[in-house]
Each structure stands twice: as C-alpha cells, then as structure tokens.
Write a structure and sequence with these properties.
Layout lengths: L11 E3 L2 E2 L12 H10 L4 H7 L3 E4 L2 E4 L4 E2 L6 H4 L5 E4 L12 H13 L4 E4 L4 H10 L8 E2 L1 E4 L2 H11 L8 E4 L45 E5 L13 H14 L3 E5 L3 E3 L13 E3 L5 E4 L2 H4 L2 E2 L2 E2 L12
Parallel strand pairs: 1-6, 6-7, 7-8, 9-10, 10-11, 11-12
Antiparallel strand pairs: 2-5, 3-4, 13-15, 14-15, 16-17
Helix pairs in contact: 1-2, 5-6
Length: 318
C-alpha cells in the first residue's frame, strides 16, 4: 500500500487483500511472495497481521499457503487521496483468485465506483472469474476502472485475453511480464490476421483487414512488456526479438506500448559495454549474450528508445 509506486506507469498501489497462489510459469519467481514473507515477520503488528499465514517454507522453498487475508481496514484508502491518481489494485496479490469472496469484491468495486477522480488498474491471471464477475457488476458507466490480464506465453495469452475482451469496459490492458517466449497479440488488435491478396497493408479494405477498434470490436487498448527480475540462477532471460515483435505490432495498430524493463538479464546487443565481467554474462540457445544486473541499471530503452506510452485517464462514458 503506497501513495507512491515503483510501478512506473502508476502513481499509487492499493492492496485490499494479502496472499495469493501460483497459477502459471510466470509465477515461479514471484516477487510478492518474498515480500509477503518478509512483511509477515515485521515487528509492526499491523503489517504482521496483514500478511500472517500467507506464506510458509516447504521442502521446495518458500511458497504461498493459499490463505488470503481480507484487509477491510484498507478499503477506504483511495477516498483519502484527494489528488487524482492512477492506482494499481492488488499489487501484492490477485483480486480475482477463488479465495476472495464475492461479497468482498463487491466492497472493492463499490469503493472504486465512488472515486471516479482516480483510475483503477486491475490485473489478474484469473481472467474467467474477472469476466464473469464484471458481467454481473455493471462497469460500463465506470470508464475509470480498467480491467487487465497478465500473460507470459502464447498459451496464456490465448486463454486469458478472450476472457478480458468479454468485459464491457472503456479500456482493456495486457501486461506481458515476465515475457517468457514469443507472443503474437495481433489477433486481438486486427479484425483479420492478414490482408487479402490485393489490399495494401497500410490501408483499410473491404476484406476486413482493419483494426478491431475501427470495426467497433473490443480490442487491447494498452500493452506493458517486461522481463523477469531476481537472482542470476532464477531469473529467466527475455529475447529482444520477442519484445520488438510486440512493439512493432503496437506501433502498426497504434496501440500504446510501455516497455517496463529488461529484468535481471539484459541482452548485450542492446547496450554498449566495455570489458564484461565473465561471471555476469551468459548465452541463450541461439548464442545471444546477456549481462546480469538490476532493472534500474538497464533502464527501459528498447533499440535506444525509451518505450513509455500509456493511455490517459478517461472520464467519459464507455
């Protein structure tokens, strides 16, 4: 919970629940798991109670217990922030995991609907539950609530993005972090995957090769991409070709694209290095060289350009 956020495209974070479960390969080196375990050992009784029982040590290392703490005392926090903020909801958990009661989701959504001066970014791996819930809870008149899904590979993009686009919302966004392989998102930006034999790619044609937005169909409105952080033996590398492909798709479809960071391993071809420390480098199966460091050290430049484009808050109707 913070009135300031280390998430670069947000102004604040709001976590009305604590505790989570691992759902897919992107969760393997979860930063929130480590933070929750540390918070549970905090001598501050409020922090200890908030995270107590959410993590435990196993024979395979630190894991979530599956227990979720509902932090009712934090429900009114956004109402206390008078200046409009872009708020990431549930940065330390997943709001739509099965352990969160439907009635508590109602409390969270009631708060968000009462605070239209803020923009609330939802992000989940439980895409079906989010879509089912938001179909019952009318958000068409709440353009400041932005549902989003987290994907890491093509498989999970194909599972979660169609569920996201079932939601009638002003904005739909996708976080591809950590990016673990090539992901083609064009099918959720275009009405047709390829142009016909006669139409040029830079013009609309009756064949249907148009953006989903121009066809009035639900589309991805914003994409965030980032690599995995962590220790050298744990963090997985992100090939720059995967990032460039998503960036190019966003440029072509005029979709806002935010490149968050390279993660722990940065591809050497993206930087000018002097003498490299041998213990800080490795190669992938293609022979591409990577250098280990911190995301802060690498920054968020892709092909020497900083990728920071995120939609502005919407105050009109859907």
């Amino acid at each position: 919970m913070a009135d300031k956020s280390k998430i670069p495209y947000c102004d604040a974070t709001w976590s009305p629940i604590a505790g989570c479960t691992k759902q897919s390969p992107g969760c393997r080196n979860c930063f929130a798991l480590r933070n929750a375990h540390r918070m549970a050992a905090n001598p501050n009784p409020k922090l200890h109670r908030r995270y107590a029982g959410t993590t435990h040590m196993t024979g395979h290392g630190l894991e979530w217990t599956g227990h979720v703490n509902l932090c009712r005392e934090l429900l009114d926090v956004p109402a206390q922030w008078k200046r409009p903020r872009r708020i990431f909801v549930g940065a330390m958990s997943d709001l739509f995991q099965p352990a969160v009661p439907h009635a508590f989701l109602d409390c969270v959504f009631e708060m968000m609907k009462r605070e239209p001066r803020h923009t609330f970014l939802l992000l989940t791996k439980h895409a079906q539950r989010m879509a089912d819930y938001m179909a019952l809870y009318d958000v068409e008149d709440a353009p400041h609530i932005w549902p989003g899904v987290s994907v890491e590979t093509q498989r999970y993009a194909e599972e979660r993005i169609p569920e996201l686009l079932r939601i009638k919302a002003a904005m739909h966004w996708v976080s591809v972090e950590p990016l673990l392989g090539p992901v083609d998102l064009s099918g959720w930006m275009w009405g047709r995957a390829e142009p016909c034999e006669v139409c040029p790619k830079d013009e609309d044609c009756d064949c249907g090769y148009q953006t989903r937005r121009s066809l009035g169909e639900p589309t991805i409105d914003s994409i965030v991409v980032g690599g995995e952080t962590g220790w050298p033996d744990h963090a997985r590398r992100m090939n720059p070709l995967w990032v460039q492909a998503i960036r190019d798709t966003c440029v072509y479809s005029q979709t806002p694209f935010w490149f968050k960071s390279w993660g722990a391993w940065a591809p050497a071809v993206q930087f000018e290095f002097g003498d490299l420390q041998k213990e800080r480098t490795c190669q992938d199966d293609t022979g591409l060289l990577y250098v280990y460091g911190s995301p802060t050290e690498w920054g968020n430049k892709l092909d020497s350009v900083t990728g920071e484009n995120f939609p502005e808050p919407q105050k009109g109707g859907c």
